[in-house]
Amino acid sequence: MNEPILSVQNLTTAFRTSEGWREVVRDISFDIHAGETLAVVGESGSGKSVTALSAMRLLPKDKARSTGRILLEGRDLLTLPEHQMRAVRGGRIGMIFQEPMTSLNPVFTIGNQLAEALVLHRDMSWKQAEAEALRLMERVRIPSAGTRLHEYPHKFSGGMRQRVMIAMALACKPRLLIADEPTTALDVTIQAEILSLIAELQREENMAVLFITHDMGVVAEVADRTVVMYRGDMIETGDTPQLFAAPGQPYTRALLASIPRLGAMAGSVTPRRFPQVDAATGVATEGAQLPPPPSATQPVVKVSNLSIRFDLPQGRVHAVEDVSFDLHPGETLALVGESGCGKSTTGRAIMRLNTPSAGEILVGGQNVAKARPAELRALRRSAQMIFQDPFASLNPRISVGAAILEPILTHGLLPKPAARERVSQLLEQVGLSPDMATRFPHEFSGGQRQRISIARALALDPQFIVADEAVSALDVSVKAQVSNLLMDLQAQRGLAYLFISHDMSVVERISHRVAVMYFGEIVEIGPRAAIFGNAQHPYTRRLIAAVPVPDPAQRGTRPAPPAVEPRSPIRPLDYVPPKRRYREITPGHFVMDEAAA
Amino acid sequence: MNRIVRAMLGRLAGMALVLVIVATVVFVIVRVTPGDPAAVMLGSDATPQDIADLRSRMGLDAPLIVQYGQFMLGLLRGDLGQSIFLGQSVGQALLARAEPTFFLTLFSILIACAIALPVGVLSAVKRGTVFDQIVVTLTMIASSVPSFWLGLMLIQVFAVSMGLFPASGYGGPDSGFFERLQHLVLPAVALGVVNSALITRFTRAAMLDVLGDDYVRTARAKGATERRVVLKHALRNALVPIITVIGLSVAMLVAGAVVTETVFGLPGIGNLVVSAVLRRDYPVIQGTLLVVAAIYVLINFVVDMLYILVDPRVRL
Lengths: 597, 316
Prior knowledge:
The complex is a heterodimer of chains A (about 600) and B (about 325).
Chain A: E1 6-17, E2 20-32, E3 37-41, H1 48-56, E4 64-72, E5 75-76, H2 82-88, E6 93-96, H3 100-103, H4 110-121, H5 126-139, H6 145-148, H7 158-170, E7 176-180, H8 188-205, E8 208-213, H9 216-222, E9 225-230, E10 233-239, H10 240-245, H11 250-258, E11 276-277, E12 284-285, E13 301-312, E14 315-327, E15 332-336, H12 343-350, E16 358-363, E17 366-367, H13 373-382, E18 383-386, H14 400-410, H15 416-429, H16 446-458, E19 464-468, H17 476-493, E20 496-501, H18 504-510, E21 513-518, E22 521-527, H19 528-533, H20 538-546, E23 570-571, E24 582-586, E25 589-592
Chain B: H1 2-32, H2 37-42, H3 48-58, H4 64-76, H5 90-125, H6 130-144, H7 147-161, H8 177-182, H9 185-211, H10 214-221, H11 226-263, H12 269-278, H13 282-310
């Protein structure tokens, strides 16, 4: 083969800490050729992003240093003078980042930011650059590019912003595109669109792509070759199909074994624990099937015709529209859909964290909206919530023990010594040690913090828990462990979960029933097996089809996702939503009647 | 632009309401002051006849609601009332004193910004260096120095010892415009330096905040020069808090005119208020309060408009 576009040789990057230099990336070597995609995969802290930033020399000079060689078309980037490096950045190497929401400058128009890249590298006047920017926006298929060119980033959705970032990265026809978790923050349907866009542009330009991700499903979809990283070391590298078929290292085997795979639950009625993976050998033992929930008498939560609307200067957002469902003791109902579909708003309404515009929510037969302060306290006891971000949802100045203790004392459930005893028990139940109670949140990892949040939610011995994307921010192996914990606690305590998530493969494992939300409405609801095995609504099908399949052998066998024009959720103030009708497909499986829509 | 016009109209309506409330409060304060204002103003050796005359001149003998109506109607016509002692209307008195206050405030804030913006930005960019540490130390010292003390020191050095600038006052009645302005140099430097400390700190903090943002990294990944990254991408985003603190500084300068103008012997609005209070010239106190309040509201308005110009996401 001819000379690689990028050749990383023995790259070691160290960060300055109070104890001296600490190596965060050790002795990494790989090549990427023109037209090829190399995935660097690993969990958080594996050093994959640092590798990319080292290649761009974007790490702060005084806090990080790199040794080894990073050859771009034969030139060593690590020894290049700064002004030549600037010509490389954005000129020879384009880069896109994980956070499309914050990666664009909020105070300049999209057109200005796109044109800037062209003016910097391609010797164009601003006028020429704007014309070219328009062409670039059309190329990444941004609808009505002509007017959107003059708009600011806050008017763009996450997916559209990532398209702008791609246009910007590709503006100067780089030889190498570095994509650092480009779809992690996006909905799964948008992710599929962005991935196919990158692949298409790569083919046209014969670019090399360095694709950084934690998602083995995405790796299987995009990468020709894969580098697996773990705590700064390159564990394994190889052709993607081979790596998936015959992983050489235990860590790679463990990583592959922990991936939730859509379809793994076919033929099983109740939820099943994730496989237990032995980190030393990478051998997985299939998880146990959970017992069916007790045959329900009374639902613990009953939501009837719930509507939540927000008025904006531009109109009205029907965040939740005519939503009804029951949640029974011991049952997990998953609420799925993409961001902005109203699933979190629904969960928050049940906790009375916002105010419904219409409809009724009964928790244990008690109307949530009409509860008086004393009744509300009782409600809050029986209903608890776990949030997505384990870093933000624990107060950094309160010890973990005190955080779990607080609700017990607030509700006066136990005297203080007994309450402390209870905290120890709770920590043990969520798989932590009781002596951790005196520590503070920053001393824990993300997975441990989420366990602490669960212990805090359990402190009041609730009947049900709203888990709002509770495992979404966790690394794949930790995600499996925390999901297993939730399932175990459910089996022991008969807890009911409203499991709000966009992650279809976790939902498939954990839930008894699934409700699919789209633009504030439930378009399909039913037993988990029916939703995944016999999806009726086109949106449900699209959602399931968009989930990346962690199997390189299946690449290209699935049709490309249709690009769906994003719809504005804002309606005129006098908009009256049509009354929806539902068809019952099989007992308990309802789908919105499209004929009436 | 439509967005800006709409926000401006909304704000202007709000401002009008604030001013009506301020005017009402001022009206009430003067009426609830213990004792008869007329008697208080004229002193102990006034005859009841003098007091009664003054009361009717001030309109204090009419029913309260009528007084209020007349007061507000006067304001609508721009009539702030008559000074008791100056023999001129309050409006005339204020106008005659506006010049030194206006230029002193203007020069002070210009000097403050000229120091604070470059130093603050540079200090953030060079965070942790010796330069940064010196800046942090100096701003701490400067913000603890009272401006009048610094002013006195400047007078001592540049006026008394070196004779470069006048020490006090605002020139005679027939001195020219530029001659008058010379009198403002030392006070403006004193106020500018002291005010620059706070603005420097805010600029530094705001820049440190945005320099870590993702879009700054994007700009670098685009291959922009460091200068462009800092001055275009970062500074523009840091401007909202910086504008806020500059606006606050201007407001404090106007309110602080009472002290500065006394120290430097400047015949400005601050000076007018002090003499009016000493002589219990109620209409002047009342009028000045209103005008200063109006200036505050105006500064806030300007700051809000600047927010909109600087940040397209701001909605008012």
